[in-house]
Design brief:
Blueprint: H1 16-65, E1 97-99, H2 102-105, E2 118-121, E3 143-145, E4 168-172, H3 197-200, E5 208-210, E6 228-232, H4 234-243
């Protein structure tokens, strides 16, 4: 008896249209995976920066406590930066603001985005001989707010000059690096009109700094912010120096 043999179906390859559709779908899937991964990387880097800023504050206090007559280091004002503080012949800072003197403090030189940390100090707290070192009565002259105008509701620190006002501010210019100094020492992207007023406040060399939640650029121009800011309380500095026997 003769058996019926079923012929296998004819194998057909992908058409160009089908291949194009498949590539688009794969690209969308990969993109949906990569975006969260990129966000996670930025979040991890931001957490690393916050830990580094805390370490820098500890280094500032340790530096002051190591001096016979306590003082904080001056900023590094050289371009390109060399990591050493810049002090004039009178024992005062060449400028109250510049890059963090990482060599002087023995800390990391750059943030995860390859830019220098910005550092500003209350001039009175960085005086050293022959200038008269700071005392318990010297006020801080820096202020940190959630917006440049520093309205009452936006104030994160007290209005200077005050014995409670910050004596130092340290910040990273974040992923976009705007207004910062690159590792090579070249001035970063200038705070042009496209940059938010909040980021401009951290680059204009005055005593007011902005710290708030990060926000990516949106349809509203000039609302981007990704700086990471911390400050040194005079109460912490004074209490640590008193405990170390460096202040009466």
């Amino acid at each position: 008896m003769k058996r019926n043999r079923t012929r296998p179906p004819t194998m057909r390859g992908f058409t160009l249209v089908e291949m194009a559709v498949a590539i688009v779908v794969m690209a969308l899937l990969i993109g949906s995976i990569l975006v969260p991964l990129a966000t996670q990387v930025d979040q991890r880097r931001a957490a690393d920066v916050q830990r580094t800023l805390d370490e820098i504050k500890e280094a500032l206090v340790g530096f002051a406590a190591a001096q016979t007559s306590p003082y904080l280091p001056c900023p590094d004002t050289d371009l390109p930066p060399d990591g050493a503080e810049n002090v004039d012949a009178g024992g005062n800072c060449v400028s109250p603001e510049g890059t963090l003197p990482w060599v002087t403090l023995g800390v990391g030189a750059i943030d995860p985005w390859n830019n220098r940390y910005r550092y500003r100090v209350t001039a009175a707290f960085a005086r050293r001989g022959p200038a008269v070192p700071f005392t318990l009565s010297d006020p801080g002259d820096l202020q940190v707010c959630a917006a440049p105008a520093c309205a009452v509701a936006d104030r994160l620190t007290v209005v200077p000059p005050s014995p409670s006002a910050p004596v130092a501010v340290i910040l990273s210019h974040g992923p976009n690096g705007r207004g910062g100094i690159s590792a090579s020492g070249i001035a970063g992207v200038a705070p042009l009109a496209a940059v938010s007023a909040d980021e401009q406040a951290n680059t204009d060399s005055n005593a007011i700094f902005v710290s708030r939640a990060p926000r990516a650029v949106t349809a509203a121009a000039g609302d981007e912010f990704d700086d990471i800011v911390t400050w040194l309380s005079p109460h912490i500095l004074r209490s640590r120096l008193i405990a170390a026997g460096r202040l009466p």
